[in-house]
Amino acid sequence: MKELIQLSNKRPTRQIMVGDIPIGGGSPISIQTMTTTLTHDIDATLAQIERCTEAGAHIVRVAVPEEPDAKALTAIVKRSPVPIVSDIHFNYRYALAAVDAGVAKVRINPGNIGSEKRIAEVLSAAKAANIPIRIGVNEGSLEKDLLEKYPSPTAEALVESAMRHVNICEEHDFTDIAISVKSSDPLRMIEANRQLSAKVSYPLHLGVTEAGTPRRAHVKSTLGIGTLLLEGIGDTIRISITGDPVEEVLTAKELLRALGMAENMLNVVSCPFCGRGDPEAGYENIVAGVEELLEKHDINMEVAVMGCEVNGPGETRNAEVGIHLGGKELAVLKVKGERVRTFRGRDEVNPEFLANALLEAAQQLQASEGDSAS
Question: How far apart are alpha carbons 34 and 62 in whole angstroms?
Answer without folding.
Answer: 6
